[in-house]
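re: ur msg from earlier - yeah i can do the alpha-D-glucopyranose complex, just paste it... oh wait u already did. ok heres what im feeding in:
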Amino acid sequence: MQGKLKWWQKTLVYQVYPKSFLDTTGSGQGDIPGITSRLDYLKTLGVGAIWLTPVYPSPMVDNGYDISDYTAIDPSYGTMEDMEKLIAEAKKRDIRIVMDLVYNHSSDQHAWFQESKRSRDNAKADWYIWRDAKPDGSAPTNWRGIFGGSAWTWCEERQQYYLHTFAKAQPDLNWENPEVRQALYDAANFWLDKGVGGFRIDAIVYIKKPAFVDGEPDGEDGMVGIHEMTHDTPGILDFLHEFKANVFDGHDIFTVGEANGVAPSELKDWVGENGVFSMLFEFSHMNLNFPTSERWYAAEDWPLSKLKGALTASQRATATNGWYPIFFENHDQPRCVDKFFPADADPILAAKAMATVLLTLRGTPFIYEGQELGYTNVAWDTIDDYNDISSHGQYALAREEGCSHEQAMAGVHRFSRDNARTPMQWSRSRNAGFTTGTPWLPVHTDYRECCVEAEACDEASVLSYYRRISRLRREGEIAQVLQAGTYREVLADSESIYAYERSLDGKTVIVLVNFTTNNAPYDAALTEGAKRIDGSYPDSESGLLRPLEAVIYEKED
Ligand code: GLC
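and the outut:
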């Protein structure tokens, strides 16, 4: 089994949010040369691939997820030469660069849309999704966009509405048009020619549109979330197989689709032998707070068994077919320390607990910028302090639905995407060493303790723990078990402990993680005769986990 694994199944991926990584010009925003200059740092984490969130030209309404040119670099990030240098320098260190393909929509400033909106009969007239108004002049359907408000915007010039799953500056491309599909494939092939090692494919579940009909309203505004109406529409896989044949096939790359709404039970159609992508980000374990619609102010609590159940279902669904991308953070999510643990949790222990799960499940671990330092959420006073467009949408929705300012802000504090977007904390010096200018988003106030400089020389730090467990996952006999071994959940009924065994060729690794801030006893027979390999406390006691303790044992059959 081990011998058969591909490079991307044996490595770790690190997600860089370029705007917040490292600024080399004093502009207050990170740039590509900043990433190149820190490749050696990423190497110390054992990273073999870097997923870059979009660095293409963009008006930045959604921080780069509104692309105005798919085959160029935004000047704020540098030049194409900088990008080529990053790819080459990374390659020297055995690190591949993975690009983000945002193909459900473009920016409204893209030349394609500028042309499309001009008339109903220009060459690109059919490149986006245009519909007439209802007889009363209102939008064609009652769908609410993911960032709030109607998913349709009126265009004076064309006297028609266009559809946008996200912001109105992000019009949806018309995948039914073969010319559009070809243009998108060409752009992806442009990056393959530049030598990139793979793609993360954004919001891919929305590319196939269903019939344009009203849905049952889910709120006071008479609208229904577009996600409910358009994700994973029948026929989507036909588009995706064509995409694969025209772009991915025949290259030694990996692909990971972002597929909010695809359930573990459907994974077989998306990954593996008959699938499309190498891996799929499904969100069953990330959406526990929102079992129905995503309203931050109305987040629900969940018992640990729900998280364990979701992870186990995904592990099982990819056990013999396909592969799983393990992730607990990304640029759209709050920090995992705040998301998955009780409010009174010690952040360092919580970060190590999550690191243990991230680095020992079966699949490819994705570390998100700052996660390896144990970042926590921020909480700014007013909505105007927030840059993230979805925070503004969620705040407005909460107020519209009767919440006070405080209630609405509590939701923003908990779930804002800006939690994940504050600048990287490199050192104890001004602006955490991120910029000599004014940072585009405030640096977290904890940067003097929580930064690379402070953590690199502290053996008890989150960073040192990540480096250690990453090595365990990559080198030596245990690494083989962690990479290729089977997964079996144990202590499944526990509401305190997440525990599982990974086994290969007569060797078993047992992982136990206490998600609570109380002591958690368990049947000591589970670890009898096993040897402790590592853990988040300096030592461990068989049969008992201390608050938030994570421990890894090994035993021979
Ligand atoms: C994805 C991205 C997110 C972006 C959205 C629209 O969910 O991860 O950041 O806002 O798509 O492109």
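cool cool. The chain has a mean pLDDT of 97. ping me if u need the other ligands too
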